[in-house]
Design a protein that fits this description.
This protein is of the alpha+beta class. 52% of the residues lie in helices and 19% in strands.
Length: 205
């Protein structure tokens, strides 16, 4: 059960000052995302704001109900806080909660980036690499490592304005493995060369 469309439009208006609000299926409902960070969750007809860092402290201090989610028979307390009906009627308070949620989500995102570093700081990478990867939906080091060099290369190939070639594939693999491309292990290099020629041939047919 979702919230009425009227309420969704209301949420979109409240969050509009921070950018475009997107939604994605999550926990049997859908989450609300701004700037690649989850800020809210709609599930079982209720709306929850995500509470992290100082937002979590505030929401718990004022007694907002925490989301209890059942997974494989186990009850889990999640950092989402239900917004009661009375707050929907009190826009200035709702805006305060929304702002708190967004600022905390951005702060958490920055902290995570500082811990793991940015893509541009990896071996073989620079600002141009980071921007190009961002244009194909890869924004963080963890995403780059999860997707892998080959899939990243294929994504970049769809973005025609970025340089392509075996050198780029070596650079991506080196960035993920922590090597400069010139000192990639021989076996890895040979595997990438074979894969590259297979992909290159399939594209030219």
């Amino acid at each position: 059960m979702m919230i009425p469309e009227q309420k969704y439009r209301y949420l979109a208006r409240l969050f509009s000052k921070y950018g475009e609000m997107k939604r994605k299926n999550h926990f049997g409902g859908y989450c609300l995302i701004i700037d690649h960070a989850i800020v809210g969750l709609v599930i079982d007809g209720e709306f929850y704001l995500r509470g992290c860092l100082f937002a979590q402290n505030h929401f718990e201090a004022i007694g907002l109900k925490k989301l209890i989610y059942k997974k494989k028979g186990v009850l889990l307390e999640l950092r989402y806080y239900c917004i009661p009906d009375k707050v929907w009627q009190y826009e200035s308070r709702f805006l305060f909660y929304v702002d708190l949620t967004y600022q905390a989500a951005m702060e958490e995102q920055l902290l995570k980036q500082k811990v793991e570093g940015r893509i541009k700081d990896l071996p073989n990478m620079n600002m141009a690499s980071e921007r190009a990867l961002g244009k194909v939906g890869i924004y963080h080091v963890a995403e780059l490592k999860l997707i892998g060099a080959k899939a990243c290369y294929l994504k970049l190939r769809q973005y025609n304005h970025y340089r392509l070639g075996i050198k780029l594939l070596f650079e991506l693999a080196g960035a993920i493995a922590g090597y400069h491309s010139s000192v990639l292990p021989h076996d890895l290099k040979q595997e990438l060369i074979r894969w590259y020629h297979t992909v290159d041939c399939s594209c030219s047919e």
